[in-house]
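Revision sheet: structure tokens.
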Amino acid sequence: MKYSSLAVHCTSLCCDILQTEDFVFLTHDEINWLYDEVYELIQERMELWPDTYPKEHEFIKSVALGILKALHICKDNHKSGSPTWLLWAMQSRISSTYKRLCYLNQREL
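Predicted:
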């Protein structure tokens, strides 16, 4: 599987969060509270304009939620947090989101 630079960025972000001393003490609600910050980091990385282009908002939202989902999984199962698994999970989320949004765009034409 080829990995996009965004997948690498998202994996790195997950690893940074997982490696903090505080991650073990985070609750699932506290992981959810990271959404705004994660959303903003993806927006900045991709240089997207979600306020102008609604599809870009949907893309960023889906990827951000994918990151949070991976963190929830890692919280529940500490063995699942390998960089290889995270990279695969991030690329899968990015690819499926892109395909879904392209499909929806074609249906609107």
